Amino acid sequence: MKVSTRSQVPPFAVMDIVAAANARRAAGQSVLNLCVGEPATGASEVVRERAVQLLAGGDLGYTEALGSPALRQAVAGHYRAWYDVDVDPARVAVTTGSSGGFVLAFLAAFDVGDRVALARPGYPAYTNILRSLGCEVVDLPCGPETRYQPTVEQLEALDAPIDGLVVAGPANPTGTLVDRGALDALAAWCADHGVRLISDEIYHGITYGDAPGAEPGPAGAPTAATALGTGAVVVNSFSKFWAMTGWRLGWLLLPDDLVAPVDALAGNVTLCPPALAQHAGVAAFTEAGYAAAHANVAQYAASRRTVLDRLPDLGWTRVAPADGAFYVYADISSSGLDSRTWCARLLDEAGVALTPGTDFDPVDGHDWVRLSFASSPDVVAEAVDRIADWRTRG
């Protein structure tokens, strides 16, 4: 029987590491998992308590395709509180995680054959979703000279027009921000050239004060919500700042011309996001919900400092600036090993799981690895000790 060519996307190399780590753990061996971008704390108590109440007697039937009115109002209020931006709740589309948001946004904005540019290294699902939808991905190689972020100069130098640009700040795997001036310049260039800007902002709120380009206020990063009127799309999620990964809840902020298409697509593709997660998710926007999330960020900051302070012990002399999110992206080429071999040996010989850079950069990622410090500070500290000791022994 036929298998579609669009489904032939590469698997994540990290899944081999995850499988090996699970096998090691099943055999009774110690494993410290720093390879996945998943907060260790899970959802806050106020969200979990609301979910229990709903399970005991709440209405968990279908909601509107674009999400429950209460949650869409709460998201709009979040933008007033954090960014001083007025967003019409009618422009908010609640999605099945940010992943579902990307699928809906890409389906609504792009046709087969459209060219969409994005930074390399970057989150691999952007590329894989776009290609599965028949779009052409245009790599923008980004290094330390641009702080691993795309620039207007790169867009101007392209040899053919593009239809879309995906930016992320803080970015995965580098953690780097797009500062206010750069984001405004990219948004203006896109508006002038009829290019759809899609801004991944799922790590907003997880930033660090010493990061160049960090914004004042709780978000710590600029938002493209100010560019909705020029056709930009914002993607965000409850998974990172609010540590609600398995709840599968995210949102889009949409320009006027995409509201109806996304509404129609959502109704056909998912019908609606998970009702329990939606109704409980409103509690994330309460004082207690924000407080719990900020407490998590304080832990990430402590773990980040542990890793950065130990870079000489790790032998990592070239790392991407960890402005935000909870990642350190490091060059391990001095080891003489490619990143997949390096990660496999680290797990086998030291019991620490990291992600090979090839997941994020198929061209240069063999020299890089990603460490996630989303685990508890004591786990991160022990993992760093193990890596440093393993390097010394190796």
Q: Please estimate the helix content.
A: 40-55%
Number of helices: 13
Oligomeric state as shown: single chain
Shape estimate:
globular
The radius of gyration is 21 Å
Low-pLDDT runs: none
Cα distance spanning the termini: 49 Å
Please give the largest β-sheet: 7 strands, mixed
User: What is the CATH homologous superfamily assignment of the largest domain?
Assistant: Type I PLP-dependent aspartate aminotransferase-like (Major domain)
User: Beta-strand level of the residues, as a percent range?
Assistant: 5-15%
Structural class: alpha/beta
Predict the CATH topology of the largest domain: Aspartate Aminotransferase, domain 2
CATH class of the largest domain: Alpha Beta
Organism: Cellulomonas triticagri
InterPro entries: Aminotransferase_I/II_large, AspAT/PAT-like, NHTrfase_class1_PyrdxlP-BS, PyrdxlP-dep_Trfase, PyrdxlP-dep_Trfase_major
GO molecular function: pyridoxal phosphate binding; transaminase activity
EC number: 2.6.1.-
Short summary:
The chain has 394 residues and is α/β, with parallel strands linked by helices. It contains 13 helices and 12 strands. The chain has helices at residues 14-26, 45-57, 69-83, 97-109, 124-132, 152-156, 180-193, 256-269, 275-281, 287-309, 311-314, 339-350, 377-393; strands at 32-33, 92-95, 115-120, 136-141, 164-168, 196-200, 233-237, 250-253, 327-331, 352-353, 355-356, 368-372.
